[in-house]
Amino acid sequence: MARYIIEFLVKTHILKGVLNMLDYAIEVNDLRKEFQVKKKNEHFWKRKNKEKEIFVAVDNINFDVKKGEIFGFLGPNGAGKTTTIKMISTLLRPTSGTILVNGENVVENPIKALTNIGTVLAGERSTYWKLTGRENLEYFAAMHGITGKKAKEKTDYLLKRLELDKRADETVEKYSTGMKQRVALAKALIAEPNILILDEPTSGLDPQSARNLREIILEIKEEGRTIFLTTHYMEEADQLSDRIGIIDHGKIIALDTPQNLKNNLNKTNIINLELNNWTKDVLEEIKTIPAIENVTSKFNENTQNFEVKVHVSNGSETISNLITSTISSGIKIINFRVEEPTLEDVFINLTGKSLRE
Ligand SMILES: Nc1ncnc2c1ncn2[C@@H]1O[C@H](COP(=O)(O)OP(=O)(O)OP(=O)(O)O)[C@@H](O)[C@H]1O
Prior knowledge:
Layout (H helix, E strand, L loop, with lengths): L1 H10 L2 H10 E15 L13 E15 L3 E5 L6 H8 L7 E6 L2 E2 L4 H5 L2 E4 L12 H11 L4 H14 L15 H13 L5 E5 L7 H16 L3 E6 L2 H7 L2 E6 L2 E6 L1 H6 L5 E7 L4 H8 L4 E9 L4 E8 L3 H13 L4 E7 L3 H9 L6
Parallel strand pairs: 3-8, 3-9, 6-7, 7-8
Antiparallel strand pairs: 1-2, 1-4, 4-5, 9-10, 11-13, 11-14, 12-13
The structure holds adenosine-5'-triphosphate.
């Protein structure tokens, strides 16, 4: 009998669904978000008043977030990170596709799905600035049905934990950006969600506050919570994430552990040149050298030199061609080094551009 039941569950994919539920905190299948935007004509005066076109912000993406992991969602401005987060946290309705949170479909059962999630959106004024940090937490505790002694205990614990206790009775408007970010995090944690969604949590913070917040994020993971984190800081994604999905123009272009993403670039040498000059002609010439994959450059205001990064796929012969070509163009090489690939290099290799271009 038991055998028949198991066969039935396997055949109907029910078992697979149940097993996925045990493994995955978030499952995103074929997720798409289209926005209607004003039509971009070459000449705006030719545009008829109500002409609209479809802009695809999230283009049929698929990924799973495992329970207990930090999943970094990395991409440049406008790549589709916030749109994805808003769909996962039920703030935006997908155009198509499905999102399951702990096995619950967020469109069909938003309330059930939301009991598992705490969200902190980027730059969001999610707390009341005229209330104190303590009052904010007590208020949001009450919203989740947590009152009395339990609310006080939780509030005290989170204020201390997020180093807000010394200024807990001051209004939030007087807090620094880092403190405001920590109150928003405390608010998201008050109902003890098992999934925390953080949109650009360290954006706008000074390096010390950003470091402190990253440590807190790692502690929250240690408690067994799942964290879905968007960022456009490569080092942050590298340092915090168990796995990283890289999104560009609404599409996932890579998904793996940070180490595997970098290892996949192993055959590529990353050459850093510091040059006293850099011209478009030299760039074009260098690009014609076989096995040169990508060239990016920036001007360093401090040194008044150009920093040129070249991805080379087959080592020494190409490197000597690169040096010869540069020198014969009358450019002086001030510094030369070969680097280990970083996530930034992974991104350049995949897209041909640097993340902040
Ligand atoms: N309501 C909307 N209507 C039209 N276009 C939108 C809307 N919301 C977002 N977009 C567009 O969708 C694209 C993705 O936006 P999204 O905010 O998801 O990017 P992001 O990766 O979070 O970028 P950032 O790091 O700058 O926050 C952008 O081009 C954005 O302009």
